[in-house]
Amino acid sequence: MEIATPATAKSTVISTYRNWVGTWTMSQDTACYREAHVMDVCPSNYNRNEATNTCWTECPMEYPVECGMECIRQNDDCGIEVASKVSAVAIATLSSASFGVFGALEMLSRKVWWAAGCSTLVMVVMRGILRYIRTMKATDPQASHRKLLILLFHSSIVVTDLPLTIAVCMRMHVSSNLVLSQKVLTTAQWMLMQALAHDDSIISSWQRFRAFLEGANFTEATEKITEGEIASLETAMKQESSCGGELKFL
Prior knowledge:
three-stranded antiparallel beta sheet; mainly alpha; 6 strands; membrane; single chain
């Protein structure tokens, strides 16, 4: 009989619950909820909660910090994460009330409708600003307030969303150019974030590139493009050309 050593021993135990820790990928969300099961004995990758007789999964690599029922990113703030969840509920409540879903504001004057709309816009914008600050702090924990302020002033939230909100709350005329710039900057910001998250896999195939175009709200372009034009794009992808003139020629 051969006795196994620590180097050669193999376990025959098959886990009922999946291993929560996987390969690292860039996080698209700020947090994730922890999976929980009611059981008397917890597996090795679960944490015990005696009060509720439940076992909670350990946080994955993308969100390594425990924050109550959630897991958040490294260097993120648990208090702000909880506050953002509360503000999301408040936004939904204000929006529903302003559209008369609850029937309470529907019978009141236009002044109340404006007040609810203004409050909702301010909360949405401030939530976006706080989310942006959190992302910057998680990426660079040592960043000074001055650096964060400079980054904020260059974000679409401050450039367009905040002025639009201020104009609405002050009952000022909202310029059509400002509305247009809001749409353009928001789309540009989304495209840049996708580039950071997925790198050159975006243009690795027509299927992926089409999904990217549709995500950027360029649905009409994807629907009207011909098979010949798609073939030309695929040729350009294989050549890995970065020259705009060559791509236009193709």
